[in-house]
Write a structure and sequence with these properties.
By secondary structure, the chain is mainly alpha-helical. The chain contains ten helices and no strands. It has one domain: Up-down Bundle (Rhopdopsin 7-helix transmembrane proteins), CATH 1.20.1070. The two termini are 32 Å apart.
C-alpha cells in the first residue's frame, strides 16, 4: 500500500508550500504553524512509504513516531489557536508546544526500539507498543500529545463556526474549518488502526485525511465575489479558515 503514503506526502507537501508562501507575504503565525505541521505530515508520509516498501529500521521508525505520531497534530492545533488572535494565549501555547517538542525529541532519541518488532511486519506500519514496549512512556506520548491537540482543532472549528453577536461567519469559513477538523479526525482514526496492526488502513486514512484538509484550504482559496452590501474585498485565502 505504498501508493497511499506517497499521495499523502505529495498533497501535504503542496499544502505546506502554499502555507509558507502565504506566511512570507502576510506573516500570520497560523500560516507558519500549519506549514510546519503539514511539513511533518509530508515527512512522516515519506517515511511510511519507505517503510512499507520493506525498509523499516530503528531510525526510520523513530522519525515516523516523532513526526507522524507525536508532533504534527500539536502544531496544527497551535495554528488553530493562533487563528483566535489572542496574543497571550498564542504565546503561552507556543512555549508549551516548543517545550513538548524538545521533550519528545529527547525521549524518542534515547528510547530503545525493538528491531525484532520493527522487522516482524516489514511491509506494514510497526505497532508502537510492540516496538517500545507496553506501558513505556514514549509509547504513551502519542496519546498524550495527539488526543488533546485533536480536541483543540475540533473545538476551535466549532467555536469559530458559531454566530457572534447575531452575525454569522462566512459559509466558506465554516466549511473550511470543518474540513480541516474532519481531515485531522481521519488521520487520528488511521493512527488508532495502526495500533492494532492495521498499517494498510493507516496509510489510507492518512492519505484521505491530508486530502480532506487540502480541500479545506483550496475551498477557502477560491476567488470570492462580494455581495453588493459588502464593504471590503474578498478575504485573503488563509484568513477565511
Amino acid at each position: 500500500m505504498v501508493i497511499f503514503p506517497v499521495v499523502a506526502a505529495v498533497v501535504s507537501g503542496i499544502f505546506a508550500v502554499l502555507l509558507v508562501q502565504q506566511y512570507t507575504r502576510r506573516h500570520a503565525l497560523y500560516q507558519l504553524f500549519w506549514g510546519i505541521s503539514l511539513s511533518m505530515f509530508a515527512l512522516a508520509s515519506i517515511i511510511v512509504a519507505f517503510g512499507s516498501a520493506g525498509r523499516w529500521d530503528k531510525t526510520l521508525f523513530k522519525g515516523y513516531w516523532l513526526f507522524g505520531a507525536l508532533l504534527n497534530v500539536p502544531y496544527l492545533a497551535l495554528g488553530s489557536i493562533a487563528l483566535l488572535r489572542n496574543r497571550v494565549l498564542t504565546a503561552v501555547s507556543m512555549l508549551a508546544v516548543a517545550a513538548a517538542s524538545l521533550y519528545a525529541l529527547l525521549i524518542v532519541a534515547s528510547a530503545k526500539a525493538s528491531e525484532a518488532a520493527i522487522l516482524s511486519h516489514p511491509y506494514d506500519v510497526p505497532v508502537g507498543k510492540d516496538v517500545w514496549g507496553k506501558g513505556v512512556l514514549v509509547a504513551k506520548l502519542s496519546t498524550y500529545y495527539s488526543i488533546p491537540a485533536w480536541a483543540i482543532v475540533v473545538l476551535i472549528a466549532a467555536v469559530s463556526s458559531r454566530s457572534r453577536h447575531g452575525v454569522k461567519p462566512p459559509p466558506r469559513r465554516v466549511r473550511a474549518n470543518w474540513l480541516i477538523a474532519a481531515g485531522v479526525t481521519d488521520v487520528a482514526i488511521g493512527s488508532a488502526l495502526a495500533r492494532y496492526q492495521r498499517g494498510a488502513f493507516f496509510s489510507v486514512f492518512l492519505a484521505l485525511g491530508v486530502v480532506v484538509m487540502f480541500v479545506g484550504f483550496t475551498l477557502a482559496s477560491r476567488p470570492h465575489v462580494p455581495s453588493a452590501a459588502a464593504t471590503d474585498t474578498a478575504p485573503a485565502p488563509p484568513e477565511t479558515t
